[in-house]
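Quick one:
INPUT:
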């Protein structure tokens, strides 16, 4: 294979892709062990791959405080959410081994500092609520009381659930470059893609060179559609309705935080590292319950200076099939009323799928409906 330059793609956040993979040290077995939660483990793997560039490890206090207060790292670079490792006590040595929940050692952390943090303040700033009914806040409140900071070296990468969809930022960048794409739009999702979201991705794709469909495959709430079912839906949809040479399906290994607006910014920055120049932000991106206003995840981008993030957010309205227009549309592009729209509530859709009824083709592609019906029957 000839080398392809990725120079024409957007630069990674901070200028260079971080690579924190490496060899296990000879004295590994003598190190104190810190066990990571599944969220911390997915953060660790994303640090290793450069998906969280410029982070080289778990955040130190100066970065943490400024991110929580001002959505910037200590260096002044935008950053929206803490990436921290919670522990019970400060380690005694200068390095610790990091283990997954099964006890397997996966990385080494060079201890920079251990610091106290205020959970309620982090919740209020990052999640805009201190209620523990919010799944992200509940997880935060359940964390250990101190944060352990330091650069990591990962010698055992996570085993991806979908190896054929697991691509690090360096690999998506190489693929974009090979395909001659320069302007690439990223689409984050944690749901099956119905006609409304298919439409957003295609409207966005019309204006750029390529589309990265980048479903989140890390930890989600238990009532979200299971990831294997979703992946099956994405494959069916892409096979039937998108040109192969304009779209790439790949997995985004992050865990959901449900931090709404701040997570939208964080998702955008991560996709910039994967090589996306544009990022789709719909209504209530990464939201949960009614903690966030419909447009909060779009408005938050105004809190950054123009070009500070570099990646361009693309904002979309709620979309639907309009029977009069005879096409997908939104209130931005269609003058007709609600009575002319094909509208199905989430409850109604689940009821239909549960009964084995295929929703109208104006709402979802029949191939996608069939995957969901089969999943509901099991
Ligand atoms: Zn219309």
């Amino acid at each position: 294979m000839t080398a392809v330059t990725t120079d024409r793609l957007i630069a990674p956040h901070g200028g260079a892709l971080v690579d924190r993979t490496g060899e296990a040290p000879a004295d590994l077995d003598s190190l104190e062990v810190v066990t990571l939660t599944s969220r911390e483990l997915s953060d660790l793997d994303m640090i290793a791959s450069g998906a969280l560039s410029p982070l080289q490890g778990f955040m130190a206090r100066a970065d943490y405080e400024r991110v929580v207060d001002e959505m910037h790292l200590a260096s002044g670079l935008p950053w929206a959410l803490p990436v921290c490792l919670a522990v019970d006590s400060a380690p005694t040595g200068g390095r610790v081994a990091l283990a997954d929940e099964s006890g397997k050692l996966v990385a080494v952390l060079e201890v920079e500092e251990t610091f106290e943090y205020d959970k309620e303040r982090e919740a209020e700033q990052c999640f805009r609520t201190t209620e523990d009914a919010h799944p992200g806040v509940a997880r935060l409140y359940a964390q250990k009381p101190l944060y352990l900071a330091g650069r990591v070296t990962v010698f055992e990468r996570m085993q991806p659930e979908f190896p054929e969809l697991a691509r690090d930022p360096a690999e998506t960048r190489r693929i974009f470059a090979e395909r001659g794409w320069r302007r690439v739009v990223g689409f984050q999702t944690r749901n099956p893609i119905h006609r409304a979201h298919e439409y957003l991705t295609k409207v966005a794709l019309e204006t750029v060179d390529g589309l990265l469909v980048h479903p989140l495959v890390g930890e989600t709430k238990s009532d979200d559609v299971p990831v294997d079912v979703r992946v099956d839906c994405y494959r069916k949809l892409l096979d039937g309705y998108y040109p192969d040479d304009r779209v790439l399906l790949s997995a985004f290994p992050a865990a959901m935080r449900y931090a709404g607006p701040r997570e939208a910014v964080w998702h955008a920055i991560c996709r910039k590292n994967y090589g996306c120049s544009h990022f789709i932000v719909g209504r209530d991106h990464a939201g949960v319950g009614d903690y966030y206003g419909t447009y909060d995840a779009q408005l938050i981008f105004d809190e950054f200076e123009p070009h500070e993030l570099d990646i361009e957010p693309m904002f979309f309205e709620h979309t639907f099939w309009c029977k009069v227009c005879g096409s997908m549309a939104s209130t931005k592009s269609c003058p007709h009323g609600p009575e002319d729209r094909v509208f199905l509530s989430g409850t109604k859709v689940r009821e239909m799928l549960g009964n084995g009824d295929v929703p109208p083709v104006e709402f979802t592609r029949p191939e996608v409906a069939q995957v969901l019906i089969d999943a509901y029957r099991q």
